[in-house]
Queue: 2 jobs
Job 1
Amino acid sequence: MTRPYTSAFTLLELMIALAIAATLAAFAVPSYRSHVARTHRIDAASALYRAAQFVEGAASDGVSRLPPGLDQAPQFGTPIYRLRVLPADDANGGYSIEAAPGESGPMSDDPCGTFTLDATGQRGNRNGANGSTPATSECWNTT
C-alpha cells in the first residue's frame, strides 16, 4: 500500500518566509509613515499659499477669517491642519497666516509644528511642545 504524495510547506520554509516578510515590514513601515508625514506637510504649505493668495486678493475688504475650504488642509475631507489669519503688526507686512496641526490628529506631535507665512513671504515654523524645530527648508520641503 503506497501513500499518495502530498505537498506542503515545511516549518523551515514557513519560518524563512516570515523572516523575509518581517524584514521588509521593518523597513517599509517607517518609510511609509515618513512619506505620509511629508505629504501632510506639503498639504499645509500649499494651503498657506492658497490662503495668502485669497487674503492678497481681498486686501481691501480687511479679511479676518478664511472661507470654508481655505481654512483647513487638506482642502477637502478631514482636516489635518487648521488655518487662520493673524492680525497685522509691524513685522509681518500686513498679515500672517498660520497652519496649526489638530490636537488629536496624525501631525499633532510633528517636529515641524505650526507653519506660518506672512505678507513679506517669510516662511517659518513654531513648535510649542519641545522647541526643537527642524530647519524651515526641511519642513517646507525645499531641500
Job 2
Amino acid sequence: MRLSLIPAAAAAVLLASTVSAQAASYAIDPTHTFVTFEISHFGTTTNRGRFDKKEGAVEFDRAAKTGKVTLTVDTTSVNTGTAAFNKHLQSADLFNAEKFPTMTFTADKFVFNGDKVAEVAGTLTLLGKTNPLTLKATNFNCYQNPMLKREVCGGDFEATLDRTAYGMNYGIDWGFPKDVRLVVQVEAVKQ
C-alpha cells in the first residue's frame, strides 16, 4: 500500500510544479509605453514621431524564459508636433491610416541574457504586410510598483526596419532612406 502512494505523491508534486511555472498575464500600460520612430532627413537632421494610442498584452514566464506579446498601435495617432506633417504621415503616401488604422507587433520568442530579456522576436504587420522583426532590449527590469501594489515589467527596445518591405516607398526616389529606427519603451502591469 505504501508503494502505491509514492507514484501518486510524485505526480502531485509534478503537477504542482507545472502549475506554478505557468506564464503570468500583463497588460501594457499606455501611460508608460511609447512607440517612436526616427528617419534621416537628407542626412542633415532626423525626423522623429510617436504614436499616442497603443494597447497590448504580454504573457511572461521568467522561470521558463518564455513569453508572448501583442502590441497594437493606432496609426491615426501619429504625432510629430507639426499638424501638417502628421496629416502627410497619415496619408496614402505613408501610413495610409484611413485604410490601415493599426500596425501590430506580435512575438512569441523571448531571448534572455541571464534573467533579463535581451530581445523579443516576432512579426510586424504594417500596411497589410507582415514581416519578421526583432526588438533588441537596451534596458529591462521587473519591479514591485509601490502605487499599484503589483509587479511591473518592461524596458526599452529598438529595431531598424526597411519601410519598403511594407510598401512604404514615398520619397525613395528623392533620396529619403528606407531604414527607419523604431524605439519602443514599454511597461506592463501584472494582472
